[in-house]
Structures are given as C-alpha cells and as structure tokens.
Amino acid sequence: MLSWARQRKLLFFWWAGLFVLVAFGLYALVAFYRAPNCQNGERDGDERGIDCGGKCERVCPADAQPLLVHFVRAFEIDTGAWGVVASVENRNLGAGARAVPYVFKLYDADNLLLYERRGAAFIPPRKVFALFEGRMYTGHRAASRATFSFLEEPLFERMTEPGLLIVTKGFTTHERGSLLEAVMTNPARTPVEGIEATALLFAPDGNIIGASATALKELAGEGSATLSFTWPHALQTPARIEVLYTVPGR
Fold it and tell me: What global pTM score does this model have?
C-alpha cells in the first residue's frame, strides 16, 4: 500500500500532466483552428457554396433566380436625341445586387448600330424597376429598335429596401415642354439617402411614349418631397403613368 506522501506525489504528477494536456489542447485549438467565415474561399460552416448561402450575405448562384427583362423601348427625346428604357424584374426575395454592368444599343431600320451606352445597375430586392438612358445622339438617322442586356451575371446578396410611397400629382404639357410631378413619402422615421426614380408614360395601346429620371439625395423620416420629371417638347397626355424607384444609397 502506497504511503500518504507517495500518494500525494502521484496525485501532483497526475494533475500536472492533465494541466499540460489541457494547455497543449488549447494552444492547438487557437493555433490551428480556423472559424468558418464568408471570405476565406472555402465552403465551411453552414454555407451552401463557397462563401455563399447560410449565414453569408452573398446568395449562391444556384439559389438565385435570373433577372427578367420585360421590355426595351426607344423614343425620340429631341431632334436627333433618343432615350431608351428597359423594364426589369428581380424575383429574388430579400436579395439584390450592386453595380451590374449593362449595355443599351440603338439600331436603324437597316439594322446598323447607331449608338451604344454602357452603365452599371443597382438591382433592388424582389421588384420591378426601370433602367433609363437619355441623350443618345444619332444625328439625322432615326432609331428603329433598341436592345438591352446585362454583361455579367449579378452577384446577389441579402438586402432590404425602404418602403416609399409615390403619388402622381399631375401631368402638364405645352409647346415648350412637358412636366410630370409626383410626391414621394417616407413613412418610416429613419431618413432614406440616395433615391433614384424613373417615370414611364404609356399610350392607350400600351407603348411607351416617354421616360425620364431624377434623383433625390435624401428624404427625411416621415417626410415628403416632390419629384419633377421633364421633357423638352410636348407629349400627348399619357393613358397611364408609372413611377418606379430604387435606393442604391450614396
């Protein structure tokens, strides 16, 4: 039978060994363990793909629905100057994209390219929105048709958009130009920055007869602002008006 002194000595070595093992385990955990994150180029944690899905902000391409382009229309803004508008729908709930490159092209009746305009679009979550480009100069040649396409697949990420209210105030036209005014209201208490709005004017047959865009730097919480859309010549009174907005922010 071991003496009390020897028992204490063995107990000391046992606890010392346990301490060393625990300390080494903690060191190995800190030194070699890499916690899952959304920027390490690996699929880890609850990610559905590499750095996407799960807790990541980015939506995996396999889980995203493609954008729908409903129509593309060209119309003459002024002599030799054309505007083009595309109606696009994002069907992804709670997911949008930023700076998606696109291109508009204008062609004449002989299918010759008259003008090309490139840009980058903000894609709002789950919404129909409009992309408008104006002042596309073609000289004495008339545009017969327009095309629109995105140049890259959007990289969708989780986002929300402030809910704003828009009421058209009135449309007036005369020989010097046409004007549409609309009132935008922010029902929330938080101010909204970086608002872009596009007005679409439709003829009775459903064709676009005009489009115009404007921007609002900031809309105060529970505040309202009047948006003005202008055209340099007289337009027929539209049968229907749509005012669409996005909030890319500053």
Answer: 0.82
